[in-house]
Amino acid sequence: MLFLKVKLASANKNIEIAMSVGLDSKLIPLLNFPLEHIQYEVTTLIAYISIGSCNTLIDIGLPFKLSKMFCSKETSMRLKEQVLIGLSNIASDSIRGRDEILKSEILDQVKNTMEDKNMPINIKKVCGVLIAGLCKGTPIPPIAAISNKHIKS
Fold first, then answer.
1. Domain locations along the chain
2. Which of 31, 48, 58, 95 is the right S-S partner for 14, CB 3.0 to 4.6 Å?
3. What is the structure's pLDDT at 29?
4. To the nearest 5 percent, what fractions of the chain are helix, strand and coil?
5. Domain 2-134 belongs to what architecture?
6. Could you report the per-residue pLDDT of 78-101, keeping only the tens digit for each?
């Protein structure tokens, strides 16, 4: 299976192989694969691909799909953490990526995650990284997009 071979490559090799075989356009169906470990591997690959080259991922609707996965009660904590890393990379990579994630309305779920006393600290840390990524860029995001209604000061 090509995907597993791609996963075994180094981070730079992942980007080259994934883009050269058009794997980026096949990611959304793989995220629906019924086995959690396959979903985890796909989100790991997304995190690598999204560093510096997220326009194709945005074009195929990946920020929305990842946001939906994060908000799902069926998604494991391990997978949620990887989804947040992918979203953070997309948000930090471009204004367009940041704005697409803000449109997904993930911030309410991130807020709930940050306030949940039982949530593992590693998930809360990655939520913070995502929030930082969403605050970056010029022009700055609209204040209403990231505000006290979502995140407490």
1. 2-134
2. 48
3. 67
4. 70, 0, 30
5. Alpha Horseshoe (1.25)
6. 889 988 988 988 888 888 888 889
